[in-house]
Specification:
The chain has 88 residues and is an alpha+beta fold. The protein has one domain. It contains two helices and three strands; from the N terminus they run αβββα. The protein has a three-stranded antiparallel sheet with strand order 1-2-3. It is flat.
């Protein structure tokens, strides 16, 4: 199932939401600002995923949702962020 190595996902259940590693794109944006203090340049990078249904998602947002899901799961199981049991 190593999409970076094989370029195609082979796992069947649950069905993957992306077709292949080619569904993942890096986008770099360079911006130049200028004011009375001179010129300032900035670069930002984002990773965009195109899902099988044609919609697009930012990898950062997907990973944030995964982390939040695990936080909720662990809290519901009585595990705090410090490795201590949360008492009711």
């Amino acid at each position: 199932m190593d999409a970076a190595k094989h370029k195609v996902l082979t796992r069947k259940q649950p069905p993957p939401q992306i077709a292949s590693a080619d569904s993942i794109r890096e986008q770099v944006v360079f911006t130049a600002y200028e004011d009375e203090g001179g010129e300032y340049k900035d670069a930002s990078k984002s990773i965009e995923i195109t899902l099988k249904d044609g919609s697009r998602r930012e990898l950062f947002d997907v990973l944030t949702n995964v982390v939040n899901m695990w936080i909720d799961f662990l809290q519901a199981a009585g595990v705090s962020g410090r490795g201590e049991t949360v008492s009711a």
